[in-house]
C-alpha cells in the first residue's frame, strides 16, 4: 500500500493451543501406573478445581500438570537418594485439561514432607504447572493441604507476608460425590490475574 497508512495487524490470541487428546483421562490418575497395576501407598486424594479469568469467568482447554512426592516424601528421580525407595506404583506426575467450565480433576495421594532447598522440610504439597493459549510462558504454583501442622514452618509459605495470599495456596475440603469412600476431597481454584490472583512462583 504505497504512500498510505497500513491497516493494523489483526489481534491474535497467543498460543500454544492444545488438542484434547493431549490430556487423556488416564493421565489424571496418579494412584496407579496402569489400570491393572497395584495401587500406590498413602491416603487417597481427589483434587478438583477451576481455572478462572479475572472476574471469575472459566478458562477452557488449559493444560494443568501436577508433580509431587510419594507418601514418604520421595521422588522418582536419580537425585533423590534417600534410604527409603520410592513407591514404584505411584505415577508422581499427571496431566488434565480444563473443560468448558474451567474444571479439572486428579486422583492422587497425600505426599509426605520433602527436604526444602531453603533448609528443613517443606510441608506436604503438590506442584502445579499451567499451560494454555494467552500465556507467554508457563505458570507455576503449589497446592498445600488444609489443617496440616507443617504448613506453619513451610519455607515458601513463611516467605509470603500477607496471610490472605498464603491462604490462596491452601486447598479447601469439599463434599465430592464422585470421590470413593475414604478419599480426602479437596478443591483448589486457580485465578490467572486480578485482585484474587493465585500466587505464582518463579520457574
Topology:
Elements: E1 44-52, E2 63-67, E3 93-97, E4 103-109, E5 114-115, E6 121-122, E7 125-131, E8 139-144, H1 155-158, H2 163-167, E9 172-173, E10 184-187, E11 190-191
Parallel strand pairs: 1-10, 1-11
Antiparallel strand pairs: 1-4, 2-3, 2-7, 5-6, 7-8, 9-10
Essential attributes:
single chain, 203 residues, mainly beta, Protocatechuate 3,4-Dioxygenase, subunit A, 4-stranded antiparallel beta sheet, 2 helices
Low-confidence stretches: none
Strand content: 25-35%
CATH architecture: Sandwich
CATH class: Mainly Beta
The average pLDDT value, as a whole number, equals 89
Overall shape: it is globular
List how many beta strands DSSP finds.
11
Helical content band: under 10%
Total domain modules: 1
Q: Structural class given helices, strands, pairing?
A: mainly beta
Structure description:
The protein has helices spanning 155-158, 163-167; strands at residues 44-52, 63-67, 93-97, 103-109, 114-115, 121-122, 125-131, 139-144, 172-173, 184-187, 190-191. The protein is mostly beta strands. It has one domain (20-191): Sandwich (Protocatechuate 3,4-Dioxygenase, subunit A), CATH 2.60.130. The strands form three sheets. Strands 1, 4, 9, 10 and 11 form a five-stranded mixed beta sheet that branches. The chain has a four-stranded antiparallel beta sheet with strand order 3-2-7-8, with no helix packed on it. The chain has a two-stranded antiparallel sheet with strand order 5-6. It is globular and about 70 Å long. The chain starts with 43 loop residues before the first strand and ends in a 12-residue tail after the last strand. The model has no long low-confidence stretch (mean pLDDT 89).
